[in-house]
Structures are given as structure tokens and as C-alpha cells.
Amino acid sequence: MGAPNSTAPRAASFDGPCAGQDPAGRRPAFGGEELDVFLAGRVFMDMIFTGLPGLPPPGTELVSDGLGSAPGGIANIAVAMSRLGLRTGLATAIGDDMFGAYLWRTLSEQEGVDLTWSHRPAGWPTPVTVSLAYDSDRSMVTYARPMPGIDELVTVPPRAATCFIGIDRPVPAWAAEMRRAGTLVFADVGWDPTETWSTDVLDRLAEVDVFLPNAVEAMAYTRTRRPVDALERLAPRVPVVVVKQGAQGAIAVDSTTGERAWAPALPVEPLDTTGAGDVFAAGFVFGTLAGWPLLHRLRFANLCAGLSVRHHSGSLGAPCWGDIAAFGETSEVPPEVLADYEFLVPHIPDSGLGSVTRAEPTLR
Questions:
Q1: What does the pLDDT look like over 304-328, one tens digit per residue?
Q2: Which residue from 324, 296, 299 is spatially nearest to 310, judged by alpha carbons?
Q3: Which of 74, 196, 220, 342 is 20 to 30 A from residue 111's alpha carbon, by CA?
């Protein structure tokens, strides 16, 4: 991508958590709202064992050569958005135990996520997921108690340019209220453990502006066998739909503009794909708020996701603008690939050029 052209329009300087500065020093929010994005959901303490030759057989012990820890769950996308300079508000419940203290401090102090709408219920344990990474794959074990109500925390929703929800369950009242006030509603959907893939879920898209499923989810809910067919089934239901295809990139339709686009994934060697879809979504939200054409939104989302998979942990692997600027100066991909991202040059904040910092995800 190269260094920014001094005559090009520039984004204002961003001194966010990636630059180690007070997040209050960021550029103004898009459109002047209180927040750029608001979201609610469950936060997990993710612990990732790396370098394993496989799973330990019963009665045996394996010694790992690495242990990563980071906020997980909804925190993956909250951190990814905040690292791009988006003013991010999160409503969640975080346990009042040791893990909860780490998560609260990491999200609020280190990553600059606004936790005004969050709380720490007395006696409630923090949900924990342990990931065992081996042979380019992973197995997971999760402990979680029933979560205290989150929607009840949002009695008066904030003014925000966008909000992000899951449509695995009915659209919360606060999201519907925000949409009536002009907020764009972005949504994804998780894996259905029952594998019934009820089409009732798709009926909720009537209350959504942008839908971002992965290919497996999209095909399962639409009863199709190809991602492109799933995209066509979903397009009439929601103004903008994106189907994420992992290493095959992403395809999308924007019915509001008539645009259709496909963008390949970033050609990098993945280390850990945890949370890559969430980082993709953060990039797409940013591109939407910036008013970019559909192809540029997809390319930026793929770039963010591709940079994130080169690090362990879903949230703390999310790129800063410094990572994005530095990537443009490397020979990691051919020049013709970098040329696809030249449109980003005017948007790289001045402070991002020399601020390639990454939060340490390992408990010491």
C-alpha cells in the first residue's frame, strides 16, 4: 500500500488502544452519534493451549509449549472494532472472580471498550473456554453457568450509528428501538447445536439491515448446497448480505445500491483462525460507516481477518491500523495483491504508521 500521499484526504489522528493512548483521544464518531457501534452478548475467558501433538489419551498428560489467554465470545468483535478506532459500547455480564477482573480490565482499560452497560453479578462465575490447538485444528471445552439477563441492562439504548446482534434468538427490543431511530442493524448467526436450522431464524432478517453468516450457516438455513445459491436466497430478505467463505474469500449483494461483489481472502499462512469471522465483521462495519463501495468493504474485511489469523487468540489477534500500514510495506504478498488495497492509503491515521503494538495475550 505504501506511505500515504500527502495530498490525499486523511482520516484524523487515532490514538486508540493499539497506540497505547487514552481512547478518549480518538477521532469523532461517524455522524456525531454517541457511539459508532453498540453490541450485547456473552464474554468468555478464552484459554488457548498451543503446540500440542494431539489430544491427551485418558490417564496421560501432555505438556504444551504455549498458553494464550484473551477475552472471547462477543469480546472478539468488540475488541476488533475498537482497534479500528470505532467507539464501541458493550452490554454484558462479567463474573466477579479472578477471570472477570482480568476481562473487565482488559476490555475497558487496555482495549477502550465502553462497559457503561455492563455489570459484574455477585457470585456469578465467568464463562471459560479452553481451546486445544493441534494439527491445524482445535478442540474446545467450555464451562458456563446460565447468564444473567443482558437485554435488561439496556433500558435506554445509546445513540449509535450501528449495532450488532445475533439472530439465533428474537431481535431484542433495544435493537428494534435503535433501528427505528436510524441505527443500522448488523447481524450474524451461530451454529445451531440441534442442527434443525429453523427457517424461523431467517424471518428475523426483516428487522436487520446487514447479515453476515458464514457459508456453512448460510447453506444450512437456506437448504442450499453452494454459497452462491445461499446468497441468492438471502438477498431478497435483507438489504445487504455477505456470505463468508473462509479461505475462499467472501461474496455479497447490496440491494440498496445494486452492487454484487466477490473478494478473495488474504493469501497468508494461518496460525489460529479463532474469531476471524468476527474480525471480518468489524472490518465490514468500518467500511460501511466510511461509505465505501461493496468491493472495498469486502476487501478491507478480508484484510482484517487475514491479518488476525497470523496471531493466536480471536480478540487480541485483531489488527490495529499500525498492523495494516506495516503490512503494506512488507513483501509477504505480491505487489499485484497489495494493489487491491491502495484505496486504504488515505484512511490510515497518522498515528497508526509507527504504532504496531499488540497486547500480550499470555498469562504470566
A1: 988 887 766 666 778 888 888 888 7
A2: 324
A3: 342
